[in-house]
Amino acid sequence: MTGKNPLSSFASLAAKTEMPCGVLDCRKVRTSSITCRAKYHASATAPVRVNLYFSPDSKNYDTIPYTFFDVNLTAGSECQETAIIDFPEHGYMQVEVKNTDATYSATNIQVWDTIIKWKDEEEV
Description:
single chain; 124 residues; 0% helix; mainly beta; elongated
């Protein structure tokens, strides 16, 4: 079991900016979730988005997200959202956070994962 692991935290993420958070190994993942918390500007109109990009070798990542989720937007508030992620049986996932708002920064951003992996046959 990997457990709750902080991937990244950012004091601020400017409008229309995407930042990498970390890479997750997909091998033997049984269950997984990714959580993101962000504080929105009082006039924000678009959410923070968490994008996951797949790679078979941890070097060549897809240009289109494997999956994504938006952190519910409540302008002027701190919001948190968790998504259950169905990982492929091999490869790697690059986690990135994007502020989709065209004008305002999001602040106090934290991203973490919770992953439980299958045991090796000899570990059983």
